[in-house]
Amino acid sequence: MQERWMNQIDEITDAFKQSFGMLTIELLNWKPNQNTWSIGQNLDHLIVINGSYYPVIKAVREGTYKLPFIAKFDFMVSFFGRTVLKAVQPDRKKKMKTFPVWEPTKSGIKSDIWERFDKQQTDLKRLIQSCSDLLERGTIISSPANRNIVYKLETSFDIIVSHEWRHFEQSMEIERIRKQKCL
Q1: For residue 100, which phi and psi values (nearest 5 degrees)?
Q2: Cβ atoms within 10 Å, residue 178
Q3: Which 3-state string (H, E, C) describes 136-174?
Q4: If 0-12 CB within 10 Å is exposed, 13-18 middle and 19+ buried, where does residue 96 land?
Q5: Which residues are registered as beta bridge partners of 152?
Q6: What is the C-alpha separation between 25 and 21, in angstroms, rounded?
Q7: Residues 83, 12, 82, CA angle at the centre, nearest 5°?
Q8: Residue 129: pLDDT over 80
C-alpha cells in the first residue's frame, strides 16, 4: 500500500512539472478571477496542507497525541474517513472552502515554489515510508484542521493523494481558461 501512495505522489509530481514547470512565475500566479486560486496557490496549498500532518504523526510517535472521545467509535472514524475522501476526489466539480489554516499565500507565489513542492513531495514519501508500524496498528488521527474529524492514518494518505490530484485538475482548468483568454 505504501508503494502505491509513493508511486502516485511521483506521478502527481511529474504531472505538475510536465504541465506547468515551464510557466513563468507570472503565469503561475495568474488567476481568472479573485475567487479562484492560481496554479502557484494550488501548489502552495498542497505544501501547507501536507505539512500540517507532520506534527500530528510526530506526536503519535512520541506518545503525546491525544485523540478526541469520538475516535473511540469505529463507525465515526469510518464515516469521517469516507466523507473527507469523497470530498477531495479529483472529479468532484463542487467547489469547497478550505479551513483557514490551509489557505495558500494570498500574495504572489515566489519563484522557489518548485523547489518547495519537490522537497515537500520527497518529505511526504519519507513520512509514508516511516509509518509502516503505525499503519499496521490501524492508527487513528484527527484532521490537522479539526480535532473532531477523525480517520485512520491509512485513510489520511488516501486523502492526501486524492487531494493532490484534485488540485492538479483544478490547475489544469486554470491553464485551459488562461489559454482561451489569450486566443
Answers
A1: -55, -35
A2: 16
A3: HCCCEEEECCEEEEEEEHHHHHHHHHHHHHHHHHHHHHH
A4: exposed
A5: 140
A6: 10
A7: 10
A8: yes
Q: What confidence tens digit (pLDDT) does each residue in 62-82 have?
A: 999 999 999 999 999 999 999
CA atoms within 13 A on the CB side of 164: 26
Query: Residue 169 and residue 41: Cα distance in Å, rounded?
Result: 13
| First-last CA distance in the chain | 44
Answer whether 124's CB lies under 8 Å from 48's CB: no
- Report the distance separating Cα 34 and Cα 152, nearest Å: 35
- Cβ(29)–Cβ(38) below 8 Å: yes
Q: How many residues does the chain have?
A: 183
How many Å apart are CA 94 and CA 52, to the nearest integer? 24
What digits encode the pLDDT tens for the residues 83-122? Answer: 999 999 998 666 666 656 656 667 688 999 999 999 999 9
For the CA atoms of 179, 95, 37, 169, what is the dihedral angle to 10 degrees? Answer: -50
